[in-house]
Amino acid sequence: MAEQVGIVGVPPLEVIAALNREGARIFDLDEPQPQIRAPIEQSAAWVPRVYCAILRTVVLNAMLLKLDRIFIDVGPGKCDAALNIAEVLDDMLAIPIHRTHNQDRIPYGFPLCTSAMPMVEKFTLISKSVQKATPHQPREPCTPLCGFWGVPPRDFALLRLFPEQTHVFGWARCMENKTPADLGLERQFDPSLPTVFFTQTFCAKSALAHHLGRRHPQALVIDCDVSPSNSARAKIEAFLELSGVPSPAGALL
To answer: Is 123 found in the same domain as 78?
Structure first.
C-alpha cells in the first residue's frame, strides 16, 4: 500500500521527486481536506488562534488524517511560524516529521499564473503543481485586467470575485515556479494593473503586502482569517469595480 504523506509549504524538489517515484499519496496539509468535517477550532488545543488559518489548518489535518510521514518546509520558503508548528507536530504525532529548507533556484516558470481561467481552478492547479516534480505544460498568457498578489487563501471562495484574466503574483507565483524562497520573484508586481495584495490574517507576509501596496499606484491591501467576511468581499468588489474591472459570472461567495 502506498504511503500517505503530508506536506506543508513547498518541500524541495528532490523530496517531491522521490515521493513521486515511490508512488506516495501526497496530502497538502495547508489546504482544507474534503474528508475532514471538523471545525478549525478543534486545533486550538495545540496551536493558538492568533496563528494564521493556514497553519491552524495544517494542525487540524495532521490530527485527523492517517499519515505515515510529514515533510514541512521550515526555511525562508515558508515562514518562521512553520518551525514552531513542526515542534507541535513532533510532539502531537507518532510519525516522522521531516524538516526541510527549500532553497531551490531552478525556475520552472509560472504559466498558470498568467493564463486566463477561473481563479478557483487556477489556484487549485497551482497548489496541485507542488505535488509533482514534472515540468509545467506551456500555456498562452492572457492580457490581464487586474492582479492578485499573495498567498493562496484558505477559502478559495474569495477567488470567485476576480475575473479569469487575473495575473497572479507573490508567493503563489513562487509556488508554481517551484522556488518558494525567491524573495525577488515574490516582490514583483505590475504597477499598471489594479492589484489586490492579500494575506491570511496573522500571516507574517502581511508586512510585505503592506509595503508593496504602498508602492503600488492602484492597490488594495486586505487580509482574511478563516473565510472572507462580507466586509472583505465588499471591499474587493468595490475596488475592482472602481478600477474598471468587470465582475466575473458567479462572483457571489
So the answer is: no
CB-based contact 88:46 (threshold 8 Å): yes
Q: Nearest-5° angle of CA 50, CA 221, CA 178?
A: 80
- Output the furthest CA–CA distance in the chain (Å, rounded): 54
Domain enclosing residue 82, as ranges: 4-100
Residues 88 and 134 in one domain: no
Task: Look at residue 70 and tell me if it is in a domain.
Answer: yes
Calpha distance 40→61 (Å, rounded) = 9
Q: pLDDT tens for residues 40-94? A: 999 999 999 999 999 999 999 999 999 999 999 999 999 889 999 999 999 999 9
Q: Distance between CA atoms of 10 and 12, rounded to whole angstroms?
A: 7
CATH number of the domain at 76, please.
3.40.50.11890
φ and ψ of 197, to 5 deg: -95, 115
Residue pointed to by grid coordinates 499598471: 192
